[in-house]
């Protein structure tokens, strides 16, 4: 038996030893899986139970009467109007944010700009402080401009918080693209503007899509600013759910929460597809 055969045999023996059944480790893994599933799906299962509960009294563990009464009530009520407001505002905020921040992020990533770190920090400031005082100050300005209770006011309020997600993500996206491609195009006679539109922008598309999804999700779930600036005239889905919960309409609040979670889950799946590791590694570097 030669040396290579002995080595292969030794490796196979070691591998078999690793695969020895260990009941203690198996039980520990099973407990961890069950605990993880409970933490993730526990709150959602409560929402599901409440959404189909027509009657649920203490001390019953489960509802006594089941049905679709509150699903029908939500669909027939003002929920669709709130859903429409939420999507329209999120789409406007996403498009505005991308249009504003793509050129800013490109310049921050490609050119030597004085106090670049300070500029990025300014975009981060609205998220660095508690949201309530930030939006309260914004509300004072909105009153002066007669924008409280208007769609424009809510969009501007969402933009304050959304820009940080867009700018910081897009700066890392453009930094992850090698400048050599654009430099080669410029050397071949293309203008700087043309190299941006024909090379940098197409290469940055997955990152732009990821930034758009982050902004859309933020705007769709934004609550504090929408309550202070929009309510009661602009009622988004989070405000509708809050009003239902405050009125102790647990079934209506649960149905609304489940409906609000659906686009969030779908968009997070898309975000996982577009968000690349190189964007995350370049995040925050200037």
UniProtKB/TrEMBL annotation:
Gene3D superfamilies: MetI-like. Pfam families: BPD_transp_1. InterPro entries: MetI-like (IPR000515), MetI-like_sf (IPR035906). It is found in: Cell inner membrane; Cell membrane. The chain crosses the membrane at residues 30-53, 85-106, 118-143, 155-174, 195-217, 223-240, 252-271. The keyword Cell membrane applies. It is a multi-pass membrane protein. Residues 83-271 form the ABC transmembrane type-1 domain. Keywords: Cell inner membrane, Cell membrane, Membrane, Transmembrane, Transmembrane helix, Transport. SUPFAM superfamilies: MetI-like. The keyword Transmembrane helix applies. Belongs to the binding-protein-dependent transport system permease family. This is ABC transporter permease subunit. It comes from Ferviditalea candida.
